[in-house]
Amino acid sequence: MNIPAITGIDNALKIYYNNLELGNKEIIGLFGNRSSATITRLKNTVKSEMIKRNVMSYGTYKVNTNIAYEVWGIDINDLKKRKKELAQLGYSTDIQH
After folding, report:
1. How many whole angstroms from its chain centre is CA 31?
2. How many domains does the chain have?
3. Is residue 90 in some structural domain?
4. 46 in a domain, yes or no?
5. Per-residue CA distances from 45 to 3, 9, 23, 72 (Å)
């Protein structure tokens, strides 16, 4: 599965820490404006993993944030490390990709 690039480190961290589950709004915030087909494909991949792990969702159209980031290959610890290192170098982490 082709996973889009995140919109930025700060944004990915904020979405992760502010949401137990992700819906379309959060996914668009994370990856930028995407087609409904792409968003559905991203969510379905996570839902499949949630079923394997027997993890239920609170919202019918939402997916578990921890599992989503894992399935999509977004490493929170790596993002935090990069944010810290960029700050030490004097760069902002809200750079858009």
Report:
1. 8
2. 1
3. no
4. yes
5. 11, 22, 14, 9
- Look at residue 7 and tell me if it is in a domain: no
Q: Which residues contact 30 (CB under 8 A, 6 or more apart)?
A: 6, 7, 11, 12, 15, 22
Strand partners, 21: 64
pTM: 0.90
Quickly state the pLDDT bin for 1 (edges 50, 70, 90): confident
Distance CA 78, CA 10 (A): 12
* pLDDT, tens digit (0-9, with 9 covering 90-100), for 11-20: 999 999 999 9
